[in-house]
Please model this.
Amino acid sequence: MSCMRRRWAALAFLVGVLLSPTAPAQAADPAVELSVPDTAYLPKRNVGPSGGIRLWLAPQPGAGRATQSDVTLTVDASDLEGIARLRTRRECGDHTFGSTDVVTCTLGSLTRGKDNYPDALYIEALPGVSRGSHGTIRYTFSAPGADDATFETDVWIEGPDLRARREKPRKGDAAGASFDFTPQVRNAGRYPANGFGVLFESSRVTFPVQYSNCRYALQSPGSFADCWFDEQLMPGQAYEFVEPVAVDVPGSMVNGSFQYKPFLQGLTGNAEEVPGATGTDPGMRQGTGPELKVRPVDSPAGAFGEKYRLGDVRLHTSQTADLQVSADTIEGTTGSTTEATFRLHNAGPGRMSGMALRITVPEGLSVVAPTPPPDPDNESEWQWECHGPMRRAYTCDTSGPLEPGDTWQTTLEFRIERRVRGAEGLVEAIYDPERPTNDPKMSDNAAPIEVRATGGPLAEPSEPNPKPTPTPTPAAATVEGGGKSGSILLPALVIGAVVGAVIGGGALALRLRARAVRRRAEPAGPDEN
Model:
């Protein structure tokens, strides 16, 4: 069994790894060995080649030879007439051709162990083509003194619709231990899936090497694994693993998550893929245990997510973390502006994610929103990490987990509009209700914001000042995975004030970034900004 894997995009969490069977060379002494999927699905119709699917070709010298010279490639897509059109680049020439064309590419010399691919074949469905239509692409490699080698890929228009089960949060798992997890996948489409894969990924938990039809790639921290199944998934049927997948939980984890996602051969969407084969990628390790199988199960359709949605498994372990909040005193004269810094410190011993700071502004003051930096190229993704106000409160995203000893801080600019007797604000640590903090000392999770204003008349307060509370308010949600943590803030009191959202992996994500400073240090003193 051979495989293909996806290239990971910059700043994105990990994308899928494709593990798929290949068509064997039809010769005793083939000119070329090749790993290509025997089935590829076009998930979208009428999508341009630059955003459609790619089939990467990674030819290697045939019959175990170290080199092979004078290699040519002939691509025949005549079977896709009226279904799809193709595009080639680099060695095959940069042009688009119809399905009745046959294109010959001069590849020259191939060297074993090197990337010899002619970039890729780009495929898009023709407008108006019917769902379920399919045809075959044939690749023929020729070289002097060797037999021709022919490979095929069957291309389908759309096809199966694979969905992962919606998972409930796990609570009480012991940090530093392992547990067994059994995924479920359903084919919600109208066509069978002729083989499928499941990708597991996380930024923190790891997946021990187990099964022979799975590959494992360790990254620091976190890992991913992918398993390929030759079983056919029938429309409307749910399937589960016959044996569970082991999940190792780090000893420092208070909360976190991992994801699993079903995938099809050749399904790339807008992602890019590079060739890779089992045993040749030093970052991948093949399992040595028995082959993992799946079996049909009775499971309601409503138990599964939207199309291609991740199965997101949230974890809440037995580990603890002591969160500590502190705030600068706000000082200045009436009519002036001044800055104050607010800090969230993790005193450990566990690593905490899913946190935010909620800052209730003292009466008589207002927050001056920062001005975005100049962006002449219009490529910046800058956004302020705080949003609001809702009843004088702003919620500021920590933009990721806090390791033990880490301090996250944000600085806000205030305008002192009037002097109010006894004016005092409040800064609080808030967290995802599905990822509680396990904080052994809740009393330092909130702190007052003091004001020392001078100049102008002294006004009486119009409402009571907020008082520190030892209990954090469940108001934030964080999604972690893909090799990198990202935050989702859904504060219960400020939903109406959320102004930007990004759909990612089927989850509603608000990515809020700006002047936040994350550093490993003790809580800063009141004079530090």
Notes: Residues 1-25, 267-280, 470-529 have pLDDT under 50 and may be disordered. Residues 448 and 523 are 16 Å apart (CA to CA).
